[in-house]
Write a structure and sequence with these properties.
By secondary structure, the protein is an alpha/beta fold. The chain folds into two domains: 196 residues, Rossmann fold (3-Layer(aba) Sandwich); 73 residues, no CATH class. 35% of the residues lie in helices and 24% in strands. It is built from ten helices and ten strands. The strands form two sheets. The chain has a six-stranded mixed sheet with strand order 6-7-8-3-9-10, with helices on both faces. The protein has a four-stranded antiparallel sheet with strand order 2-1-4-5, with helices on one face. The radius of gyration is 19 Å and the shape is globular. The chain binds adenosine-5'-triphosphate. Adenosine-5'-triphosphate (ATP) binds next to strand 2 and helix 1. Keywords: ATP-binding, Cell inner membrane, Cell membrane, Membrane, Nucleotide-binding, Translocase, Transport. One of its GO terms (cellular component) is plasma membrane.
Amino acid sequence: MTTAPTAPVLTVEDLTVVYEVDEPVTAVRGAALTLHRGEILGLAGESGCGKTTLAYAVNRLHRPPARIASGRITFHDRSGEDVDLLALDDRELRAFRWDKLSMVFQGAMNALNPVGTVRAQLADTLRAHRPRMGRKEIRERSEDVLRRVGVDPRRLGSYPHELSGGMRQRVMIAMAMLLEPQIMIMDEPTTALDVVVQRDILREIVRLRDELDFAVVFITHDLPLLLEIADRIAVMLEGEIVELDTADNLYRNAEHPYTKRLLGSFPSLSGERGAFIRTGVDQTAAHPTEERA
Ligand SMILES: Nc1ncnc2c1ncn2[C@@H]1O[C@H](COP(=O)(O)OP(=O)(O)OP(=O)(O)O)[C@@H](O)[C@H]1O
């Protein structure tokens, strides 16, 4: 399903990121893209093409030796204000992250603090960003986000080691949604999980996006998956975005030889795109997934 473009929420212009090592590596070269409100933008390409570097740079999470050599990154806030992300100081960045833009990393489920309960970790984030929130509101919000990602709120009292991998990853997605950000960047959010759990979580993400209208940058090397869940797809090759189009156009009329090659490398790509997850979303929309991961 392709939606008509809405207003932009993020604009990346001419972004170049270099790893300043002995022989400098230009991991992202002149990347440009516009993310629209509420859309799922897939970022595809084989390992090492620069997807993660691009995502980290957009959130200013890159660390030396990575350096943004050029470019502009602008967040277009719902309030109408434009924020120049490369000009934010550390304090402004901390306030910005999670609140306006959140990220679910590859293997994020291992990023939960092992000695804190789920309740404590959600509450910490809420207290840091919403200092005026009372205890009751914190409890209600925490229960609500867990329910939304298909985790029983009774799990608030659990420690990470008491949860399955799928449940931990759902908790990380709940954490990323906690402050109702306008953008979520997801870098291979389900790769470490088994296929059934992956499908459940992906359905959940698409359903939540439909409900809450945040935009998603979804990074994966799994192009068939993107063809199912993404509205538009950017294909990266050796640091450059070589093609960016709607998922439908890309599937039917890919122009760049690399995109064609990539499509051809997945023998499973036959029939209508979106048959599984999209259909699943419609079927499960009225009955959010029970806890089963
Ligand atoms: N710390 C580093 N120092 C030097 N080069 C690096 C460093 N981190 C990444 N690179 C290089 O930058 C390029 C892009 O890497 P990146 O991790 O962004 O790719 P990716 O598409 O996300 O890959 P994957 O799917 O495997 O995560 C690669 O050539 C990689 O070798």
